[in-house]
Amino acid sequence: MSTIDFGRHSEDYVEYRPGFPASFYQRIEAMVPLQGTRALDLATGPGTIALELAARGSTVVGIDISEQLVATAKRVSKARNLDANTGFSVACAENIGLDANAFDLVTAGQCWHWFDSDAAMAEARRVLRPGGVLTIAYYSYLAAHAPVARETEELVMAFNPTWTRANSSGVFPELIDAVIHGGFSLIEQFCYQHDEEFSHTRWRGRMRTCNGVGSGGLSPAEVQRFDEALQDLLRSKYPDPMLVAHRVWCIVARKPS
Q1: Which helix (H) or strand (E) holds 139?
Q2: Mapping DSSP to helix (H, G, I), strand (E, B) and coil, where does residue 20 land?
């Protein structure tokens, strides 16, 4: 398999891949008031979480290892008139390169499994002020509960038999102890289902960003063939639009004062 690079389909990522639902931010804000908060978003991608935090009153720095995704985040931020409250740069979670004790909130959405967990945890603790909050969250479609997701994953594996991330539960309980061992105090873990609406076009675009498809698993020609096969599958069996079961899972932890 080639190297994973979500920047290869950054435009699909912006247009088609869903971010966390509004209910997620409402739950975070009940624990961490976002207005006036200085936040850092790790592996920000096209600014998915960072821009939502900024829209809710935070001043946000987003970092990502992909230059293309950082450029996309800057463009989207400007288009949404949020560029005064956001800044994006190329950096990794294990070596953030920013001042210690500088942030009230660090977020990591749909990404922690790509990190060296111990190193990223130490960096998150370093850049947070005393009493600052770390949020690690996932928003995952559920192949076990959504037939279209299950059949789509079967199609991914038909094109890419080496793909290993199928049938995810979207839950990472090992991170609970990881944050505690990393020097944080656990505030809360929460998990709930959210049904996301997809048109056929949006689902195809979302799957082109999958790490088993366009973001590292397949060549451009194979991505096109996969996309055509997925289009045929959707047209033959599924309504347009359709609801796809997703799971929000999140842990919230605090750096000691």
Answers
A1: strand 128-141
A2: coil
User: Which residue, 144, 149, 167, is CA-closest to 238?
Assistant: 149
Residue 207: name the closest of 255, 176, 256, 163 by CA.
Answer: 163
What gap in Å lies between CA 103 and CA 39, rounded to an integer?
6
Residue ranges of the alpha helices (H) in 43-88?
48-55, 67-79
Taking the model in full, what pTM does it have? 0.96
Q: Which domains does the chain have, with CATH numbers?
A: 6-254 (3.40.50.150)
First to last CA, the chain: 44
The tokens describing 165, both together, are 């991330």
Helix (H) or strand (E) holding 245: strand 242-254
Bridge partners for 87 per DSSP? 61
Q: Torsion-angle region of residue 67: left (phi > 0), alpha (psi -120 to 50) or beta?
A: alpha
Least confident of 30-44, 101-115, 121-135, 210-224: 210-224
- Tokens 């359709």, located at residue: 242
Angle at 12 between CA 198 and CA 223, to 5 degrees: 95
User: Are residues 86 and 54 in contact, defined by beta-carbon separation less than 8 angstroms?
Assistant: yes
